[in-house]
Amino acid sequence: MSHVVLIPGLAADRRMWTAQHAELGSRWPTAVATAHQTCDSITAMAQAVLAEFAGNLLLCGASMGGMIAMEATRLAPSRVRGLALLGTVAHPETPEMHQLRSDAIALFGQGRAEEILRANVPLAFHPDNATDPALTSAYLQMVLDAGTETLIRHNRAVMARPDARAHLPHIACPTLVLCGEADQLTPFAHSHAIAKAIPGARLDRVARSGHMLTMEQPGAVNHLLQAWIDG
Fold this sequence. Notes:
- Helices cover 46% and strands 14% of the residues.
- The chain is an alpha/beta fold.
- Strands 2-1-3-4-5-6 form a six-stranded parallel β-sheet, with helices on both faces.
- Helix 8 (188-197) links the parallel strand 5 (175-180) and strand 6 (202-206).
- Helix 4 (95-109) packs antiparallel against helix 7.
């Protein structure tokens, strides 16, 4: 049986997958990837995930985790038997985002991580969820717990990420692409482009969700992931 591997996003950990790990883990061997956290590039992160788990894999990556999952599929296509990509992008960093991340890294280095992250928390959520103190506090604490070095390292890895678009048409495993309907960080157009490039990929938009769809709409995400695995 293939192992379901949940890959967290930038400066995130198993807390973003709490509901999915509990639900999926009741039916299939399921684990959250951790070995990639200290790596300096998306390719090195993908290699770490492949080394962390043996055998055939069902890779489920969100945001930066989706970038890692796509790269792992390029590196080991015969081992990846299923691919789920949540709120992610396949194209390289744009000059505008490169500058925004560079500016943020400079501020992180000045000890202003909490200030910057707190100001940007609403961008990660659907408007209906951005005012939920329990949800937004849980997300903020998770990212702050990662620490400044991890924030900087992960942002630099995303800034230098490989262009995944060239190998997407060669992906042969069942693929699910999900995006929150109000995702401001990786808008639906990016998910649409990924699904269009991968033969036979299924594309779904998750209602009343932003970028953090696994935390915002765990029930809907679990239902879609279960159908993907069953398929």
